[in-house]
Design a protein that fits this description.
With 698 residues, this protein is mainly α. Helices cover 65% and strands 0% of the residues. The chain folds into 5 domains: 30 residues, no CATH class; 97 residues, Alpha Horseshoe (Serine Threonine Protein Phosphatase 5, Tetratricopeptide repeat); 60 residues, no CATH class; 199 residues, no CATH class; 104 residues, Tetratricopeptide repeat domain (Serine Threonine Protein Phosphatase 5, Tetratricopeptide repeat, Alpha Horseshoe). The protein contains 36 helices and no strands. It is globular, with a radius of gyration of 35 Å. The relative contact order is 0.04. InterPro entries: TPR-like_helical_dom_sf (IPR011990), TPR_rpt (IPR019734). This is Tetratricopeptide repeat protein. Keywords: Signal.
Length: 698
């Protein structure tokens, strides 16, 4: 039996077949046809079923398919399980795809290292084409190299030489591809002993940046040492007393802010003094909250275990003694044959803190030279560095990750105390320069200065936040509140676009338990919206309760969404509470949002059978916001239903008449017209008789 196509369908098939070769199966393989239509999942299946699925070409194609499927982890598994290809071109392709996979997983440093390896097997023309095709790679290369450099600066282990070798490899590729001022200057600063062009050397700051009289005098440094030693013993009254004697106001406010942070975990209420004096790095230290990792707990800054009752009692008893008496008491304890090595180290640290807090450098020097400095509390390490000008490599912990986290703290606080660690590559901590010079300082004169770059990016972000700037902040400054704000901005942006998986990725990179209340509120707000959009209403309610507990101002749109969720769950009283909280700040809301809030208040009261209250909300909305057509007319329709039910037919008809006259949608007009017809039937035929206003008692 023969089957024939309808002539119109046949004509369509012929036209499409002529216009689009993709339909011509005989002209394309099945794999080519699948690729044309981006059917990547089936294409991967076809490659994996091939008899020669393990050939380099097939392996690379399968990896590419997984990248097209947005499955970089699976692509990377294929690439990493494959030994290096003998063909340089194929090996370059394998490494390049590995770099793309790492980038897709958010591993920018690994991506750059894989791209670097891939470039070793590329010609200059291929290299230029590949690097140009990868979005934003120039900026990423710059930022990854910087982060690698900062890690290298904090390292003093045997791996430091390997780090430098990797740095030079990435740097040379950067110079080869882009050859801009940054790479030329970075090469000079990383390899200072090589012969260089003097023009590439960092130039001196002009203006008041280099004072003939330092901002922090030697006497001030001694007071800062005593402050930090007192903090290590949690003697905050003594710390504040030392700080109050600092001669320069910006320095005094900086260190008093540090003492307050150590005691309470709170940041300075304003940074006007640093803005007014153009102290860019001091401002950035607090604005970017470099101490963010210690917001929740400052235990690493204090001597001994703060939760140990016996230690606290022992410490407090000694602190009541005179200096000499306390030192003698500690020596007596140290001579005991029964104390452990750990206790002995703690007692020697106590002696060091006592000596430094009392300005006795001679006694402190003896202890400093024999103690394990990496085990000291951070405040005492800062005091020791400022006192003995010791190399940070002698103080940093042996764990590379801990060393990387601590290094910038010690370096910056040393600079704030009058001893700049990297005078050749970083601007002095107390650099004074107007805001308009920030860009040239951070990008030209001191391109390796982490705090200056933080200041520059933060200022730019505050003026005009963008996704690109947020990504840079999140990557470069993940250990500061600025980096966390970048992640929150990214999470908020993608959740608004309903990209919930990426939103969860950004949120999961943040430890919300360590956040101050304002940032924790932002984190919880985004999480609540993500959970609502993904249909997890019960989880969203739990998260929302955590938001309320923070005591911070809840965004009105989140309140509104939760109010609607409460109404949906028939929890009308809870919904009313949220809506009334919104209404208290109605002046900060758009008129559209004000009208919507009144409408949902009316809906809630109507559901609770509080029709008088509902009527008040509906009528107030219709009167006050006639320009908000949808909400005003819907409110009038809802009010008409109440009047109709009460037998007030004329009032109901008047309200419905306005709806019919002004509704922009056909459905609204038809619904209102239908109700008018129904009311007319209820009213029956009306006699138009002039009614007297006179009332007869009988």
């Amino acid at each position: 039996m023969k089957y024939s196509l309808h002539p119109i369908i046949l004509t369509f098939a012929l036209v499409v077949g002529t216009a689009c070769p993709a339909f011509a199966g005989q002209q394309q393989t099945f794999k080519q046809w699948l690729e044309h239509y981006s059917a990547w999942d089936r294409l991967e299946h076809e490659y994996s079923q091939e008899a020669q699925a393990e050939t380099p070409d097939a392996i690379l194609k399968r990896a590419q398919v997984y990248l097209n499927l947005n499955s970089p982890q699976k692509a990377l598994e294929i690439i990493e399980m494959t030994p290096a290809f003998s063909d340089p071109k194929l090996e370059a392709e394998r490494l390049w795809l590995g770099g793309i996979a790492h980038r897709g997983l958010g591993n920018l440093s690994q991506a750059v290292l894989w791209f670097t390896q891939a470039s070793q097997n590329m010609t200059k023309s291929v290299m230029d084409e590949r690097f140009d095709s990868e979005p934003d790679l120039q900026q990423i290369w710059h930022d990854v190299w910087l982060k690698m450099y900062w890690s290298y600066s904090a390292n003093y282990t045997l791996s430091k030489d390997s780090q430098k070798e990797a740095l030079n490899m990435v740097l040379m590729v950067g110079k080869k591809v882009w050859n801009d001022d940054f790479w030329n200057r970075a090469a000079v600063l990383l390899n200072p002993n090589t012969s260089v062009n003097p023009e590439n050397e960092p130039s001196e700051l002009t203006g008041d940046s280099h004072r003939s009289t330092p901002l922090v005098s030697a006497t001030d440094t001694d007071l800062i040492i005593q402050t930090m030693a007192s903090i290590s013993l949690e003697q905050f009254d003594e710390a504040y007393s030392s700080v109050s004697q600092l001669t320069n106001e910006p320095v005094r406010i900086f260190w008093s802010s540090l003492a307050v942070f150590m005691e309470r975990g709170s940041l300075p209420p304003n940074l006007h003094i640093f803005e007014k004096g153009n102290y860019l790095k001091a401002h950035a230290f607090w604005a970017g909250n470099v101490l963010a990792p210690y917001s929740k707990s400052r235990g690493k800054w204090f001597l001994g275990n703060q939760d140990s009752g016996p230690w606290t009692q022992f410490r407090n008893n000694l602190l009541k003694m005179d200096f000499e008496e306390a030192m003698a008491a500690i020596d007596t304890e140290l001579r005991s044959m029964l104390i452990s090595e750990q206790t002995a180290a703690l007692l020697n640290s106590f002696k060091l803190a006592l000596a430094l807090s009392n300005g006795n450098k001679k006694s402190a020097s003896t202890i400093w030279n024999k103690i394990d400095k990496s085990k000291l509390p951070i405040s005492l390490q800062v005091a020791g560095v400022l006192t003995f000008k010791d190399n940070l490599n002698n103080i940093l912990p042996h764990n590379p990750a801990e060393s990387y986290a601590l290094y910038p703290i010690l370096s910056l606080l040393s600079g704030a105390g009058g001893m700049d660690i990297h005078e050749r590559t970083e601007a002095p901590f107390w650099t004074e320069a107007p805001l308009e010079r920030l860009e040239s300082l951070s990008e030209i004169q001191y391109p390796l200065d982490k705090l200056l770059l933080l200041a520059h990016l933060r200022h730019t972000f505050d003026v005009a936040p963008t996704v690109k700037l947020a990504k840079r902040a999140a990557f470069l400054f993940s250990d500061s509140s600025f980096g966390i704000q970048g992640l929150l901005y990214l999470a908020d942006d993608v959740v608004k676009d309903k990209n919930l998986q990426l939103g969860a990725y950004y949120l999961n990179k943040i430890d919300e338990t360590t956040l101050p209340s304002n940032l924790r509120m932002a984190w919880l707000d985004i999480k609540t919206r993500l959970e609502l959009d993904s249909g997890r209403q019960a989880t969203a309610l739990t998260t929302y309760k955590e938001m309320v507990k923070t005591g911070e101002t809840i965004p009105v749109m989140t309140r509104l969404r939760m109010a609607l969720l409460f109404q949906q769950r028939r929890e009308y009283e809870a919904a009313r509470e949220e809506l009334l909280s919104m209404w208290q700040s109605k002046n900060q809301m758009t008129t559209t949002l004000q009208a919507e809030t009144l409408f949902w208040l009316g809906e809630g009261e109507y559901a609770l059978k509080n029709t008088d209250k509902a009527l008040d909300y509906y009528l107030k909305l219709a009167w006050k916001y006639p320009q908000e057509n949808i909400w005003a007319l819907t409110a009038m329709y809802r009010a008409s239903l109440i009047y109709e039910k009460r037998g007030k037919y004329e009032t109901a008809k008047k309200l419905l008449g306005t709806v019919v006259k002004n509704a922009s949608r056909k459905e609204q007009r038809e619904a209102a017209t239908a109700r008018i017809t129904a009311i007319d039937k209820k009213m029956g035929k009306q006699e138009h008789v002039q009614q007297s206003t006179l009332e007869y008692p009988f």
